[in-house]
Queue: 3 jobs
Job 1
Amino acid sequence: MSLRPNVLLITLDQFRGDCLSALGHPNVRTPHLDALAGDGVLFTDHWAQCAPCSPGRASLLTGLYQMNHRVLRNGTPLDRRHPTLATEARKVGYDPMLFGYTDQSADPRAISPTSPRMRIYEGVAPDFAVHTPLGEDGTLWRQWLAGRGTDPGDEPKRIWRPNGGDLPPTGAHAEPPAFGAEETETAFLTGRVIEHLRDRDGSDPWFLHVSHLRPHPPFVVPEPYNTMVAPADVALPIRAASRADQAAMHPYLRYAMERTALSSFVYEAPGLVADLDDDSVRTIRAVYYGMIAEVDAQVGRLMAFLKERGTYDDTLIVVTSDHGELLGDHHLFGKLGWFDGAYRIPLIVKPAGSPVFGRVDIITEAVDVAPTIMQAIGVARPPAMNGRSLLPFLHGEMPDTWRNAAHWEFDFRETASGEAERALGLPLDACQLTTIRDDRYKYVHFSGLPPLLFDLGRDPHELDNRADDEDYRDIRAMYAERMLSWRAVHQDRTLTGWDLTAPGGPLHRSPDRGQW
C-alpha cells in the first residue's frame, strides 16, 4: 500500500439514515453498502448539520456548522475564506477530482459580475477539479442517453415522464421511465469513474469525490427497481392522526404543509404532499426504496472494479449523504424543519489497509467527515473546523471527550420572494431554527416563533410538543442553556487560538471541544 491512501468520498443525495438493510429495514435492499460496512465501520447515529443540498454539503466539505459557514439555502454563496476538504488535500499533493456536483454558489466578491457563475447554485466547491459535471439538468447524461438511442426529450425534466410518454402523471405512480437500469444517472456517473480510473497513468494516490444525485427526487426508477418493493408491504409514515392535528403543532409546520408541492417529488403531478392518500404515500415510499436499491447496485459495481484492479484495500472509502428525506413523516416529504427523518443520514467508513469491523452507536455529525479524511491523508485540520476525526473509532478507541448531543440548523428564509417572512410575520434573519437532540430530549429553538420540546423517551415519534408543559419547564430551560453554550463554544474560531503577544513569540493553541 502507498504511504498515503487513495480517497473515495461518495455522497448519495437525500439518502435517509435508516434505509440500510444492515440496520434491519424491512423493505430496503442494500447488500453492497452492507458489504462495504462489513469491511469498515457503520456509524448508526450520524446526523446532517443542515438542509437542503447546498447548506448540507457546505458542512460536509468545510467541517463547519451552518452558523459559521452561513450557506443558508441553495443559492447562498460559500465564503471564499473557508478552507474545504479539497483545499487542504491539495496541500499534501492530492488532486481532488469531482464526479457530479457540490452545489456551492461562488463568492460573488471573487468573480466578475458578468460571470455565468453568478446565476447558478450548482457551482463547484473551491479546489475540486471537475471530471464529469452532473447537475439536476443532467446534460451530459442526457447526451449519453441520446447516443445510446434513448430519447431524452426536448427539455431536461421530460425524461422523468412515465415510459417517456407525452403525458405527465396525474399523481403518485411506480411507472418506469424510458431509460433502463443500465442507463440511470448513477450508472452513467459510475461508468465515468471507472473509465477514469482505468485510464490513469502513474502510481500517485488519487482523491475522488463521487456525488450521486439519487435517491433525490423525482421519485422514479426503471425496471426492475420500480416494482422491487410492493406498496402494500410498506408501512405508513410516522405522523399525527390527521393533517389538522399535525398542522396545529407549530406555525412553521402549518406553513410548510400548505406549500410543499407534490410536483417537487413526482414530476408535474398536481397538488400538495399533505393531501396524499395512504395508497399514494405507500407508492412513493416503495419507489424510493427501489431507488436506494438501484444506487446500491452501482456502488457495488464500483467496489467490484476496485477489487478487480487491486486498489480496494489501498483506498479510504467514505459513503454518506448531504441530508435525509421525510418520506411522508409528519405529512411531509423532503428535507426541512426539525424532524429526524430529514437529518439522520448514513455514514460508512472503510479505511485503507487492514479492514476493521464494527458499528459505532454514539452520536457523530457530518462536520466530522472532513477532519476524518484529513487525518487519514496526513494534513492538519484547520483550527476553525467544528468537526473531529472519527479515525480513533475505527481502531476501537474512544476519545477522552466526545459530544453528547446532535445539533442541526435549518434556515427557511425565501430571499428572493420573501414568502416565508410575509406568511409567518418574521424579518428575514429570524427565519431559522436550531435543534439539539440527545437520546432523551429534542429541543428546537426558533428565532421568532415558539420553541418545541419532545420527550423522546416517552414520545420517540415527536408527536407531542411539551414546550409549554409546566412539568417540563426546567427541562426546556436546561436544553436552551445547552444550546446557547454549544453556540458559544463553536462560533468562528479562525484566529481565536492565536496569541501574538505570548512570551517567546506567537502562540497557536487548538481548542478543546470537551463534551459539547
Job 2
Amino acid sequence: MTLGPLIVQSDHTVLLEVAHPDAEDARHELAVFAELERAPEHIHTYRVTRLGLWNARAAGHTAEEILDTLNRHAKFPVPSGVASEIADTMRRYGRLTIERDAEGQLILRSDDAAIMREVSSAKKIAPLLGNKIDDLTAPVEAWARGELKQQLVARGWPAEDLAGYRPGEPYDISLEEGDWELRDYQAKAVEAFQRGGSGVVVLPCGAGKTLVGAASMAAVGAKTLILVTNAVSARQWRDELLKRTNLTEDEIGEYSGQVKEVKPVTIATYQILTSKRKGEYAHLSLLDAQDWGVIVYDEVHLLPAPVFKLTAELQARRRLGLTATLVREDGREGDVFSLIGPKRYDAAWKDIEAQGFIAPAECFEIRIDLPESERLEYAIAEDQDRYRIASSTAQKERVAREIIDRHEGESILVIGQYIDQLESMAEALNAPLITGQTPVNDREDLFNAFRSGEEKILVVSKVANFSVDLPDASVAIQISGSFGSRQEEAQRLGRLLRPKQTDVKASFYTLIARDTVDQDFAQNRQRFLAEQGYAYTILDAEDLAAVR
C-alpha cells in the first residue's frame, strides 16, 4: 500500500509532502476546507478551522467527504480527536435557523432546547431576541438579523438563514449569448447562488466572475446595485454588461467620485460609499435609493470595514460576493461568512487552467543581494523603515531590465508599492506610469494602449491590482508589495491569467532582497499561490540565464 502525502496532527494542522506523486490531488481536496499556513519548499502546513469547515458545509460538502479525503491521503491514521472535532464542528452548522413565521416575524429556531438556552442567555445575543415562544423558538428583533448571525458565528453556532429576501423591484435583465455562452463552472456558480439567495462565489482572476454576476442579475430579474473597488473597475463592469446583456447605457449608472448616477443598475465604488462629510457617511442613501433585488460585492475580500456595518442592515436583500480568495488580511473572514453569506461555490485555479479558460503560469522568485551601502543602511534602520529600504533597492532596476530583455516583444507589467520607486523605474524603462494620482480617463487610455499593443510595458502601482482586465499581459515583475499580503499576490498573478491569443506561457517574477524582511514578507504572500498549486522557482539574480 502506498503511503499518502498527508500527516494529520492532533493540533488540527495537516502537513503536505510536496514531492509526493499524489500531492496535487490532495492539495485540491484540502483547499475545500483547510487554509494554508506555511509553504516552504518541501512540506506545506495547512490548518483545519471551524470557519473553513462551515464554508465547506454551506457549499454542500459533508463531514464524511472531508474525513474520506484525510483518510485516503494520510500516511498515518487520522487522530480520533480530530475526526470527532471535524464531525462535531460541521454538525453545528444549521442546528440554528433564522426563519419567518406565518405573520412574517423573524424567528430563531433550534432543534435542541439546550442550544437555544445557551445562545439566548449569552450576553451579546439576548438583546437581539424577544421573549422565547417555546423551548426551541425565539423572536428576533427586526433590525438584528445581521448582528445575530455575527454573534452566533462568534459563539460557535452558525445559523442557516432561511428567512428569505425581498424580491426587489422587477427589472428585465437577460443575457445575450451569441458567440459565447456561460461556461459550465459559471452556470454552476449561478445555480448555487440562486439556491442560497446570498453568499460568496470564489473563482480565479480571469475566470469570468463578472459573467457570474451578470447571469445572477438576470436570474433574479430585479434592479441591482454593484459595489466595486474603483472607477476603472466600474467602467469595466459597465462595458461587460453592455456587451453581455440586454442592458443599454441609459439603464446603467455610475456612482463614484466623478459621476453620481442612480439607475436601475447602478455601479458604485467602495470609496464613495465610505467617504465622510462632516463626520457622516454622505452617500449611504444610495443603499436605499432603489428597491434593489440584489447587491453584488466585487472583490469581497477587499470590502472596507464600514461596509460590513452597512451590510448588517441589508440582510433582507440578496447579496452576492465575488472574489478570487476568501483570505482577508484583517481577519474578518467571519464577517464575510455571516453578513455577505457563506461560500456557495468555488473552483480551483489549476482545474480551470487545465480546461484552457485561464492561462498557465510560471512563478519565479529572484533573490538579489543588497550592495554594501544599502546593507549598512538597512542594518541600522528602525523596524518600520526596513521593508521600504530592502524592497526599494536600486538593484531591482537592473534585474527588471534583464527580465524585460529576455521577454522582448511580450506585454509586460512592472508592479510596485512605492511611488518614488515606480517613478524611478518608469524613467529607467522609458515606460508610462499609472498610480492612484493618474486621472481615470488617462488610466483608461493607457490600459487601452497596452491592450492594443501600442504600449508594451506599463509601470503600475497597486491601482492595477483590482479588477483591471489586461488579457494580453504575459509577464509581471513585482518589485515591491503590501508587506505580506496574500490577497495582493493573488490579484497580481491574476493580471496574467486571462486566456491569451497566443501560446505564450505567463511568467510572474517577484524580485526579493535576500536575507531581509522583504524575503520574509514574500514567503507569506506566496502562501495563497502555493495553496492553488503554483510552485515558485527560486533563482539567484546572477543565475537568470537559467530561466530561459
Job 3
Amino acid sequence: MVGPPVSDVVAAVIDMPEVRQPGTGLRGEGDAQSPRNRAAMLGHDMRAAIADILGGLALADLSRLDPDSQLQLQRVQSSAEQLVRLTDETLALVTGDDAPRADAPLPTSLGPFLDRIGARWRAHAGQRGLGFRLERADDLPAEIGTDPAALERILSNMIGNAVKYSPAGEVRLRVHLGPQEALCLRVRDTGPGFSDAALARLFDYAGRPEDSGQPGTGLGLHIVRELAQRIRAQIQVANGAEGGAEVSLILPRRSWAPGVEAPAAMAELPDLTGCTVLVAEDNPTNRLLVQQMLETLGAEVTLVEDGEEAAEALAARRFDLVLVDIEMPRLSGIDVIRRLRAAEAEAGEPASPVLAITAFVLSANRDQIYSAGADGILAKPIMSLDAFGEAIARVLSKRPAFRAAPWVGAPFDRVHLDRLLALAGPEDGRELLGRMREDLGTVLSGIGEGSARDDMALIRARTHVLISLAGAVGNTALQSDAEALNTAARIGQRTAVAGLVPGVMHRIEMLRAALGGELETRFAVEAAG
C-alpha cells in the first residue's frame, strides 16, 4: 500500500496536543484523528514499511548479482536504516517524547558500522563519477559507546558535502586514534575548499555567504555541530595545503568509551541451542527473518501468524522464550501477553520470558507494553543479528530461572527407572546404575568447580549432561533446574547462577544417594555373591 505524501506527514505533526496512542494493540484516550495521534500512526506505518524493505534485503541472496547491483542494494539498505533513525528522531521531536525507545543504549560495533557507511557512500560517489575511499587504522576499538544514529547523521552531512563540492577525484574517510585515544573521523575532498567568508559563518544556521556561487544554504555543518555537541565531540575544519577541504569529527576517549565495558556488551551472541521459541508475527517477511535469526542462534522455532494462534499455542505448552508482535489480527500482542501472564499466575507457574516486537516506539507505547507483562521491547525494523541477540540476552537475563520447579516427590520416577533398566537388560542394569552415579558425581564436582572458578563454560557443559540424566530417570524438577542453570550460564547471568547452584547440587546429591540405594537393593543377591 502506498503511504501518504511527505507533505501530509509534515502537516500532521504541527501544533500537536498531548499524545494518546491509537492502534489495535495500543489503546489510549483521546481522539485518534488528533495531529499527534496521526503522527504516531504515520510513524508506525513508516517503520513497518521500512522493516519490509530491510527484511527483504536481508533475506535476498545478493551473491548472484553483479558488483554494481550489490553496491546499489547495500546503499538502499544503509539509507533505509538511516531513515528509521530519522523517523524516530522526528517523531520524538514533534511529540515531545525524548525518552529512550527501549532499554539502555548498547555499544555499537565500529567495524560493521563503518562498512555500512562505506557501502552507502561508495554508491553515491560513483553516481557522480567520484571515488570513495575508507581508510581504517589497525588499532581502532571494536565497540564504541556513541549514539550510532547521531554519528551516522554527522558523517552523512560531512561526506555528503564533500561529494557535492568535489568536481572530480575522490572523497576519503580516514578513521584512526589520535592523541590520548581520541577517535578521529576525517573527511577529505578534492573541491575548492572553504572561502574566508564561508569559514567566518561556517556553523551558522543557513550560513552560506550570499555571494557564494555554491548551491545550498550551508545547513549541513550547522547540523553537524549541533549533533557533535550532543555526543560530546568536536568539529575541526581546515583547507588542505594542496587544495580541497578536510572536516574532522574528534571524539575524546571519554565520549566514545563509556558503556563499552557494561554487562550488556556481550563478547558473543547468545547460544539458544535446545531452547524452544514461539514467534507470533503476522508479516511473512518479518516472520521468516526472525525465524532465520533464531535458527542461526540454535533455537527450535514455532511460528504463528496471529494473536489467537499465539494464545492457543501458549495455552497448549510452555516455551523457553516468546516473541510477540504487538500489532496482530484477531488478538493484539498486548492481549496475548496479558492472557499469558494471567494463566501463569493462576497456575502458579514462573513467568516465561517475553520479548515484544513493535513499530510503535513512543514512551506511552512502551509503558503499555511493559504494563502488560513484557520483559523487553525490540523496535522494528530489526537492524542486525547483533541487536537481535542482545535484546534476547537481556530478556533471558531477567528471567533466568523461569523453568525452575519446586522439588516434589522422590528423586526419580520409578516407572522411568524400571523401563530404563529393562532396556539395559539384567546383566547390564547394575553397570548402568553405577555409571549414572559416576556421571552424576562428575557433574556435581564440575558444577562446584565452575561456580568456584566463575567458569560459565564448565557449568554449561556439566548441566548439559545433567539435563539428560535427570530426564532419563523422570526427575522433571531437577531437569528444569538444570535447564535454568544452563540458560543462566549461557548468557552470563552470574547472580542467577549463584542462586541456582546450591539447590541443584543438593538435588544431585539426593539423586546419587537414591540411585545408590537402588543399586544395593536391586542387585543385593549379586553383590552378596
